[in-house]
Amino acid sequence: MKKLIITLATSLALLSCGSTETEKDTKAITTESLKRNNHTIVFFDKTQSVNVDDAFVRNKYQAALKSLIDENIQSEGDVFEIYYIHENTAKAKVLSLSSRTVKENTEGLNSTDLEAAQTNYDMSIGKERRMILDLAVQKMLEKNSGASNAETNISASVPLLSEALNGKKDVKAFYFSDMVESLKNGRDFHKVAPISHDQAEEWAKADAENYKLYNLTNAQISIILPFSPNSSSKENNPNVSDYWKVYFEALGVSDVKEI
């Protein structure tokens, strides 16, 4: 009987330890999940076909920038980067910032302290967002008069997104572009654009094969086109948009938004 009691006690102790370890592991996983930061990548088209001096384009782009910065710069460690789209997109990083605003743990605070903590956070994150927006607008308005503006290499952004995803952050990419790929030794939509959805789909799936080693699952992609709502289909070719939606989906992106 004594042996049985000892055995039961030992078993209960082991179960208790196991439970504690499981709780610790679960807590660690939860804490790690909470630490997951945003990684926002903005691609500005710096080729001849996009004119940010146009009032409509400039206003649309500035509004979109403010919205995405407000949404994705939330706490310490959130990353914001800008690349230029042109002949050498892969090496065209022009801005990289990491948020420094710490969001205080408000658990257990009374209402007065909670309000003070929220006010401090709002002031700090607001100041940081305004600074990032100012820098982003400067980069958006910057001219590219060099030879690199002759080509538009949008597909070169794929390895950049893949690398960002390896950092285990929530990656969101925003393309401020007409999305007209134009390469001397590749697809050139200025010369030959898809004339139907079926052709766009066929081309996109074939071209995505060039980057099949890059998995963009978990990336979120938005395209901000420089066209007004009353633009003609000749100017804003819907088949070009279809091409990119199919292209990114072929690389694992579940949803491509067009703004």
From TrEMBL:
Please name the PROSITE patterns in this protein's record: PROKAR_LIPOPROTEIN
Top-level lineage group? Bacteria
The entry's protein name is Lipoprotein
